[in-house]
Amino acid sequence: MKVAISGITPVGCACAALLSEAGEDVCLLGTQEKLDRISGKKLNMRQTWDGKEISTDIYASLYPPFTPEVLVFADRVPDTLPAAQRLLPCSREATVATIQTGTKTEQIVARVFPRDNIVTCVLTIGANCALPGEVTLNFKGYMVVGKAYDAPRWREDVVLELMSRAFNARLGSKIAHYNCTRLLLNLPYCIPGIIGESMQRTFLDPDIAEAAVLLLREGMKIIKKAGVHIEALPDFDEEKLNELLGLPLPEAAWKFLEAVAALSPVPCDGPILGSLERGEPSEVDYQNGELVKIAGAMGRDAPLNELMVRLVHQVEKTWRFMSKEEFLNCVRKAVPHQAPPQGL
Fold it and tell me: Angle 206-225/175-186 helices, nearest 10 degrees?
């Protein structure tokens, strides 16, 4: 299958490497600045759980060398609209697969491409790129494929068949609910970007893990108030999440840090810290910021997630990470009756 992947991002590069290894005809599309930095036009990827290394030749360019059957958008959210506008003339009839990092990607693509072409992919994955084309895959989770609009079933089947070559993938209805599940689970991953440490080192601190649980509690409350049902992802158990969030805060924090520690045997940056380390604006506005917008549309507040957005933008502006105590002091001021007690 002729596949064009837009986005020289950790997820885009990982998908390109995995699909290329599976025998698909893959090209990788991105900005000239990133294209110039891909060494030797090769993709190199290492899987941390088994040490497997994948090295594959890749055609990388602004435009695909063929008319793609499937066009995958794995761009950072702010880069998605210009990428879609650039690629429409050569991909107008392609089945479009959007890989979600927040809840907006297919909506942005739908401003350019016919809605009936678009199929949504909700993916759990841990990938880092220190350099364009150099990927560390910390964990390869699962994918749910579905439609946000009225794409015919055959387009869903095309995307499912393709993605099943690289991931454990399945069809899912009510894809918007899966999007919100992915959004909810991503909420704590802004904290490593504020602290400047890997996810494992950040959440090894029980007080920081408590702040993560508070973010999840706030997010779950807002999403449920919005009338969205949390759909279980293949590697996500809603019952266990509800059980965790219902525990006393210190106990919930220990459960959370144990779950993060089990994600990967090597340190993971997380999406926000990864962007900052690459000198790119983060996508916090499309993650924690999206939760704040959902709350605002209902006339409610999401003070802790709003704080996270402000603190990430502060780091972007000052190029200075916060100490853990500075961060916790901000959390205590934002939610004084819920936050980790002083000195614990």
Answer: 150
| 231: in domain | yes
Structure tokens at 236: 């996500």
Q: Which domain holds residue 254?
A: 181-334
Summarize the confidence of residues 40-56 as an average pLDDT. Answer: 86
- Shared-domain flag, residues 166 and 31: yes
Same domain as 266, residue 136: no
Count of structural domains within the chain: 2
Q: pTM for the whole thing?
A: 0.86
Judge contact between 29 and 59, C-beta under 8 A. Answer: no
* pLDDT tens track for 236-250: 666 778 888 899 999
Q: What is the mean pLDDT of residues 317-321?
A: 94
Here the tokens at position 70 are 């499937």
Q: Which residues contact 183 (CB under 8 A, 6 or more apart)?
A: 102, 103, 219, 223, 287, 290, 291
| Same domain flag for 25 and 169 | yes
